[in-house]
């Protein structure tokens, strides 16, 4: 298979299914255009992650590509999908008791972190790539599901509203606890994953260790940008709320 081939893996259908399910709720749970655009963008990312040449590169050629694919599935697409839910639809989804437990910050963040760390254990990482239609599929689905849990408390008020400073602290904790993984991959002096030793060819002149180091750098850099941007958003919201309260207190003469 050529590195530029589209893979059209069965998982790619998931993005279309999710988009169709969302469209079916449009009348009952109307959402503003910006939310619909976010959700559609999340679905597009799912299709690209599973059908574009990124999937081909990830399955056969480059650790860098696989790490990038994981980032899309575990962080970018879930963030956009959660942002795309209207408050009414989010409240309906979060109504079951199981969901209320899973989207609690003290459950969502550990589940996401634990899942992320688990699939980077070398033996499991290599075995998943050797079993693309079972274990790798499970890996990708768990990345997506735990990613949805991760971002839920950040962007949705159901089933519990978290203060702006609470959301900022949650995102900061997520970054601090997840960042070491990318740094380890970037700094370790020898390859830790064996699967790509049998790659059909070494693309772009990357050795195995360079592939791993660039992948780690991409992971660490991406998380710095995404998590810092979200953290900054909620920090600014918090400061604006504090200024507004100070103004109200001043006007009322307190």
Automatic annotation (TrEMBL):
The chain crosses the membrane at residues 6-25, 37-53, 73-94, 101-121, 141-158, 170-193, 213-236. Signal peptide: none annotated. InterPro entries: Caa3_assmbl_CtaG-rel. Keywords: Cell membrane, Membrane, Transmembrane, Transmembrane helix. GO terms for cellular component: plasma membrane. It holds the Pfam family Caa3_CtaG. This is Putative membrane protein. It comes from Gaiella occulta. The lineage of its organism: Bacteria, Bacillati, Actinomycetota, Thermoleophilia, Gaiellales.
């Amino acid at each position: 298979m050529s590195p530029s081939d589209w893979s059209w893996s069965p998982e790619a259908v998931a993005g279309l299914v999710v988009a169709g399910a969302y469209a079916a709720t449009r009348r009952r749970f109307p959402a503003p255009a910006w939310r619909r655009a976010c959700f559609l963008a999340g679905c597009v990312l799912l299709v690209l992650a599973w059908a574009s040449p990124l999937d081909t590169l990830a399955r056969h050629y480059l650790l860098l590509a696989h790490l990038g694919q994981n980032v899309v599935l575990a962080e970018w697409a879930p963030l956009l999908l959660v942002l795309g839910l209207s408050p009414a639809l989010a409240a309906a989804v979060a109504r079951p008791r199981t969901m209320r437990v899973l989207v609690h910050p003290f459950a969502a963040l550990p589940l996401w972190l634990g899942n992320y760390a688990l699939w980077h254990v070398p033996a499991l990482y290599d075995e998943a790539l050797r079993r693309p239609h079972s274990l790798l599929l499970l890996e990708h689905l768990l990345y997506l599901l735990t990613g949805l849990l991760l971002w839920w408390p950040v962007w949705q008020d159901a089933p519990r509203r978290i203060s702006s400073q609470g959301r900022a602290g949650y995102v900061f904790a997520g970054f601090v606890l997840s960042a070491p993984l990318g740094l380890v991959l970037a700094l370790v002096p020898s390859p830790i994953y064996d699967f790509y030793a049998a790659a059909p060819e070494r693309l772009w002149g990357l050795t195995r260790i360079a592939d791993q180091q660039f992948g780690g750098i991409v992971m660490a850099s991406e998380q710095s940008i995404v998590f810092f941007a979200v953290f900054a958003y909620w920090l600014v919201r918090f400061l604006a709320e504090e200024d507004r309260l100070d103004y109200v207190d001043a006007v009322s003469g307190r």
